[in-house]
Task: structure prediction
Amino acid sequence: MNPDYAGLFLALKPETALVVGAVAVLGLDLSVFRRHAAAERLRLALWVASLAVLTAGVNVWLGPRGPAFGGVLMLDHLAVATRLGVLVLTLLTLGVARGAAVPHQPAEYVAVVLFAATGLMLMAAAQQLLLVFLSLELASLSLYVLAGFDRARPESAEAALKYFLFGGMASAFLLFGFSLIYGVTGSIELPRIAAQVSLQGADPLLMVALVMVLVAFGFKVAAAPFHLWAPDVYQGAPTPSAALIASASKLAGFTLFTRLLWPGFHAAVGNVAAPTFGPGWLPTVAVVSAASLLLGNLAALAQSSLRRLLAYSAIAHAGALLLGVMAAGRSGPAPLFYYASTYGLAAVGAFGVISAMERGGRCEYITDLAGLHRRSPLLAGCLAVFILSLAGIPPLAGFFGKFTVFAAALRLGGVAGPAGWLAILAIALSTVALYYYLIVLKQALIAAPAADARPIRVPRTTALTLVAAAGLIVWFGLDPAQLLGLF
Amino acid sequence: MSLLPWTLYLSAAGALLALAGGMRSARTARWIALVTAAGAWVLTLLAATRFVPGPRLQTLVDAPWIPAMGVRYHLAADGISLTLLVLTGLAATAGVLFSWNIEERTGEFFALFLTLVAGVYGVFLSADALVLFVFYEVAIVPKYFLIAGWGSTNREYGAMKLALYSFAGSSMVLAGLLWAYAAGGGHGFGFEDLAQATAALSRHQQIAIFALVFFGFATLAGIFPLHTWAPTGHVAAPTAASMLLAGVVMKLGAYGCLRVALPLSPVGFAYWQAPIAWLAVIGIVYAGLVALMQEDLKFVIGYSSVSHMGFVLLGIAVANAQAVSGAVLQMFSHGVIAGLLFAVVGRMVYDRTHTRKLADLRAMPLHRLLPFAAAVFVVAGVASMGLPGFSGFPAELTILIGAWKRAPAWAAVAALGVLVAAAFTLRAIQLSFFGSVEQPQPPGSDRPADHALHFAPITVAEKAGALLLVAATVLIGLNPDLLLNWINPALQSPLLQAALKAGTP
Result:
């Protein structure tokens, strides 16, 4: 094969824009911005980074479609939509960072965010196992750094270490799985692997490989029982880092593994409709999904820390999203993408509210939200939108995410099918979820503020970010066809 | 008729305006709320004057919403929905009038109130099951905040219990609807589409789907034994919210049973008919007996709501034309009467005396101190007992006659419930308003002596609200045909006829 480097460059223009942006942030900070105070340096770096993200967005929009570089990259609807989603969520994260505590090295922080985004963008389009692994590692390593960026707080270091150890283990599993896949099928390109698998059928060694891949998948999206890092990272990481981990990283992870599992291992899926399954990777996903739904929702009930609550709710959402993965083979990736992207919006928004509150004091426990409606009506209103969307209350986007995913899952063999039972379970657990979400909102909207609580000043950029996120959630909720019709 | 969707939009806009107006002053928010609530009511009445009764849902708006899933934004109305729309407008207007004294976070209060009202209008107007479900959930969330933020007794517990029961019910509905939708190959959520999809399933599956959807909706209608959220929620709620909750929101559940569950699966209905009827009858008598034992006046009214909603459920379960039209009439009637009762107890009495304990009220000569409240409560109580001349009489009578034709045992036990209702209503009237005035003051009591009691006079807003509701119950009591002429043709729709036929042996 003659490598088509011009085509590769065209396909990777958005990623190039991000990398150039990151380098520009670092270079400018080293030379021109050096003499400013840290807060000002952060502001300038964020502007440069936002420009890079917008440039990347335009390039994704106008860029080529279809397979690129001999099929290493696949720029289909899903890839383009996910890349745009990642960019929007990254932009929102940058807006959140504007209002958060200023990190010690502001420019480096922003540059690493851009590197992480680059990795996530590549994950969205990767169609070859090597690139899958490289993009995943680029994103993960950047995220480890982001989690541990706050050197003043030991919790941040703890979060980074836990995240790194779990992540390293998951990468090892993934690599082992990939090498087995290569051994069984003789290829690292997904279309060829797919062809080979459908020829060979379900090979036991292939099943072992798939289980290993699923372990890495479970880690990446924080699904039980691979979720143990999530509460600590959500709690300890700097708020914008947590926002990125909770949103863009999830979206890209789900896209990557959906592409890996469905077109790649379509033939080894197992019987979706029958209650008895049959050999394949789907039963494993079903078990992970059920475990995440149960553990996430039930453990969230017991949390008093707001961030840990969001972490367990994220685990529960991962369980529901896995239903979307199971259904993607039949109903297409639209429900999954809709759910993952709107979930990301709500998660970024919730962390944005937390970071804005941390400026004016503490926001660790749920009770620290008390009286938010007095201290900042804007934050309270936005938080209500984010939390209600997470709870799945119409007409917000969170509801339609659940609705489309559950509908797609039920169409896999009706209620008798495994996905059907899971959908019913998820619907039942949504009542449990409403309880802890309402507890949060009760503090924010009903409870009286503490005696020493003062009004919170929200920086304009952060306010704009939060309103934009809330506005998108309302808009996609009122007109879900905007996203669902993309595919 | 084409005006009707504007009730929904007007209320939603009013919610936003009230929120904005509340930042200026409480007065602005109040007037905005009153104007939008009354405006929406006037729209329903205008639409009613041009309404031509017929068996079909008359489409108002129909546009694709989520084309990928076959969901259409389809609003339509027939005589049943129109009846309930008029009720909603009336209850919302009266509710605003009875909330005139809310001083704390007034803008937010009315914003939530009008959001709830918009959701209710939306449910009654929906002709697509998913759209109906969306509005149904829109109505749930504001209830929680209204009760938890502005309520009284044990409000956080009551609010959470109510929200979780409602949400659990709606989860069951969602599960059932999605099941039917997926079985039909994902064509859409129109009532006919879903009914066809369900009819193709096995009998067991149909029975299960019907149970999910019916009992999901019936939870909000207060069916025994899933009714326990209702008394605690109503008692904890601020007056306007209890008026809307008991008056209109419980009807959402009953309306869902009638409009969605019954047509969805006549086969499932035939299976569940007798259990539902018995649960309704038990609810009537049981809640009545519990009301008889209450020491808190608002709890008496709360349980009486459950008891009266039992009649609605019984009417739906009996499923002959007479009983169902009676059930719809009872929805209207109870909406008005419950609103009136909660208004007297929550606003006129409690806001002045700061007690709802029957023992305390007994020691106050309220009929002399608050003669207007006493008069209204007597009228409402008498209407609630089902005396001729008030709307409760034709409604409950029609249901009982319908039930007698289907199964005399149901009618007989339910009639017992009428007696119990008379007992607890008379007891409440007697103890709260006509207590023994000459009761000697126990020594050492810090309660002020009778002559020291003085209450703020009943305001114009309260009088206006009360008179509206009294006029409505008398009007329908004297001429129930006003509503029955709308309702009866609507029962001829093919979907309902199929369900009614399945319920007739």
Notes: Strands of chain A lie at 66-68, 73-75.
